């Protein structure tokens, strides 16, 4: 990515705006001072009156409407509205307006203008009454809709009337000024007309330039703000698109380059961490308890010495099947049918050793056979049931393995009627299996299974354990129903 080059700097734009605004205004003001020197005292008074009225004509309605609306919606209160620099206190604003136009009433001589001022002052009093109504509504918790309706049907209409009165007053004062102006020479009249035209053009040019410059500055800032928010949330693929050809574009390109570098570094770190973690977990899942192998071989020897060759042969075949499914040609995913054969081989071996205390039953729906499962998912659960549930019971126990479809998920369950767990021990084990298996103090095999499921399928899947002291333990596994044809690689 090539960094942007500054073609129109912000400094250049601001200087251009200053020149466009200041120079024409300066020329016009100097020339106007020269012309106004020839005007009579009456003309000066009318101009002063129009100046006062025009100040309110430009801002009164907008300021009053905005302030009252924010009072109604609860953005400010009547006690705090004056503290907001962008708003006005309605009562202070009305008092100031009334005082200014009472003063104009005392110095205005034109009859039509005085009539407009009288109407204007009456409308100001009416508007103040309506403001009192809104204040009372807010203090008595009258509904929001009532206040909004009052704004639409009273306040906005009255502010519009007041602004119309101001404009009418300005209109009649303008007529008076025109009467005076007509008495002036042609040069002054032409100058006034020329100044009006130039002022309109100048205001239009200034407005266009201000909008262009401000938007050129705001758009990149908003774009950068949006992008940095996304990056802060972890989305390093976010990029800012700025084409203003100024310093903001250079800044945006620099931020984009930095984010791109961060994205690469984070991706590399995540990938390295994922590979290391998966390699660690895979190594752990491939580990087989050597005591299981020693005990199995001892049992086979014991069967041979006892001339029970058929059971010895069956046990060797079960052990062979057990190891074949553990290795699975290095595959991480196997079918649920293969996992069933795996735990069946394991239980057949253990039943020979614990024939006096162990019974088992496997009830996995055949419709699940076509779906995939992480290798060594159920075997650690069965082993846990045997060694921590049935073995300590010191009586005949049963392990039941079930599997069924639950919507678009597969629910597998290993249940025993062993010794179970105390409630405190159960809660501790539930907390342990939520940790990474390398941080567990107990339940390492269960934590390993839970972590592998979540890492491969997502945090919404995993293991749930319930146990009652003296009644047994139930471990549920939830995985997505993924056909073997969609098996993931590696």
What is the fold's blueprint, element by element?
Elements: H1 10-36, H2 41-72, H3 90-107, H4 111-139, H5 144-181, H6 186-232, H7 247-286, H8 290-305, H9 309-327, E1 333-335, H10 336-353, E2 358-364, E3 372-374, H11 379-390, E4 397-406, E5 409-416, H12 423-433, H13 444-457, E6 462-468, E7 472-480
Parallel strand pairs: 2-4
Antiparallel strand pairs: 1-3, 4-5, 5-7, 6-7
Helix pairs in contact: 1-6, 2-3, 2-5, 3-4, 4-5, 6-7, 8-9, 9-10
Question: How would you describe the overall organization of this protein?
Answer:
It is a single chain. This protein is α+β, with helices and mostly antiparallel strands. Helices cover 66% and strands 10% of the residues. The protein is built from 13 helices and seven strands. It has helices at 10-36, 41-72, 90-107, 111-139, 144-181, 186-232, 247-286, 290-305, 309-327, 336-353, 379-390, 423-433, 444-457, and strands spanning 333-335, 358-364, 372-374, 397-406, 409-416, 462-468, 472-480. Helix 8 runs antiparallel to helix 9 and helix 9 packs antiparallel against helix 10. It starts with 9 loop residues before the first helix and ends in a 10-residue tail after the last strand. The model is unreliable at 486-490 (pLDDT under 50).
């Amino acid at each position: 990515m090539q960094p942007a080059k500054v073609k129109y700097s912000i400094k250049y734009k601001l200087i251009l705006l200053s020149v466009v605004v200041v120079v024409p205004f300066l020329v016009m003001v100097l020339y106007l001072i020269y012309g106004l020197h020839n005007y009579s005292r009456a003309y000066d008074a009318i101009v002063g009156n129009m100046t006062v009225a025009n100040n309110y004509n430009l801002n009164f309605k907008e300021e009053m409407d905005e302030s009252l609306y924010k009072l109604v919606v609860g953005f400010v209160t009547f006690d705090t509205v004056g503290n907001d620099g962008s708003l006005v206190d309605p009562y202070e604003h009305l008092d100031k307006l009334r005082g200014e136009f009472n003063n104009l009433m005392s110095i205005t001589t034109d009859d039509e203008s005085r009539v407009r001022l009288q109407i204007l002052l009456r409308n100001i009093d009416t508007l103040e009454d309506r403001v009192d109504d809104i204040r009372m509504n807010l203090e008595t918790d009258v509904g929001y809709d009532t206040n909004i309706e009052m704004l639409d049907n009273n306040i906005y209409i009255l502010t519009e009337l007041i602004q119309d009165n101001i404009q009418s007053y300005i209109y009649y004062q303008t007529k008076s000024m025109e009467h005076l102006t007509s008495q002036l020479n042609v040069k002054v009249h032409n100058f006034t007309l020329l100044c009006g035209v130039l002022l309109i053009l100048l205001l239009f040019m200034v407005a266009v330039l201000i909008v262009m410059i401000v938007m050129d500055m705001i758009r990149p800032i908003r774009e950068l703000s949006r992008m940095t928010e996304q990056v802060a949330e972890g989305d390093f693929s976010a990029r800012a698109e700025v084409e203003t050809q100024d310093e903001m574009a250079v800044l945006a390109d620099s931020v984009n380059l930095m984010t791109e570098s961060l994205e690469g570094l984070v991706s590399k770190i995540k990938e390295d961490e994922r590979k290391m973690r998966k390699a660690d977990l895979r190594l752990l899942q491939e580990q087989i308890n050597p005591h299981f192998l020693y005990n199995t071989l001892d049992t086979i020897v014991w069967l041979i010495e006892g001339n029970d060759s058929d059971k010895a042969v069956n046990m060797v075949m079960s052990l062979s099947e057990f190891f074949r499914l553990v290795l699975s040609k290095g595959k991480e995913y196997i079918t649920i049918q293969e996992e069933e054969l795996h735990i069946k081989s394991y239980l057949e071996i253990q039943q020979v050793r614990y024939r006096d205390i162990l019974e088992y039953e496997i009830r996995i729906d055949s419709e699940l056979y076509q779906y995939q499962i992480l290798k060594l998912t159920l075997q650690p659960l069965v082993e846990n049931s045997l060694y921590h549930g049935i073995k300590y019971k010191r009586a005949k126990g049963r392990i039941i393995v079930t599997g069924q479809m639950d919507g678009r998920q597969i629910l597998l369950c290993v249940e025993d009627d062993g010794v179970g767990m105390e409630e405190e021990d159960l809660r501790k084990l539930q907390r342990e299996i939520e940790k990474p298996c390398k941080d567990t103090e107990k339940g390492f095999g269960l934590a390993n299974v839970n972590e592998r499921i979540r890492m491969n399928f997502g945090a919404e899947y995993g293991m749930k354990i319930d146990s009652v002291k003296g009644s047994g333990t139930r471990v549920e596994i939830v995985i997505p129903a993924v056909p073997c044809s969609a098996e993931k690689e590696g």
